[in-house]
Description:
With 117 residues, this protein is mostly helical. 63% of the residues lie in helices and 12% in strands.
Amino acid sequence: MEIDTAVSALSALAHGGRLGVFRMLVQAGPEGLAAGEIARRLDVPANSLSTNLHILSHAQLVSSRRDGRSIIYSARHDSMARLLEYLMEDCCGGNPEICGQLADTVLRSRCTKEGHA
């Protein structure tokens, strides 16, 4: 991952509304959610949601597909994984004291089938 891509993704997530949308889509899994359902659940106006989805899409954190009259949005787990890898590998600089601690944290907080640690 290039630094510009990481900055774009981190900038997109550095907004409460966009982070809320992204978290919801991650939790929805690969089937995603329709834009109208996201707006209803988050109680946000369609134009605000549209802007947030556009920014997340431009940062390659979400993808969309048409299903009839609906547009279904899904989190791009591959992009999220690359961002996390970039942060762990590049920012740690291979320092075992830092990388090891972060890896332990990730392993302790991994999701179970029920979605809880």
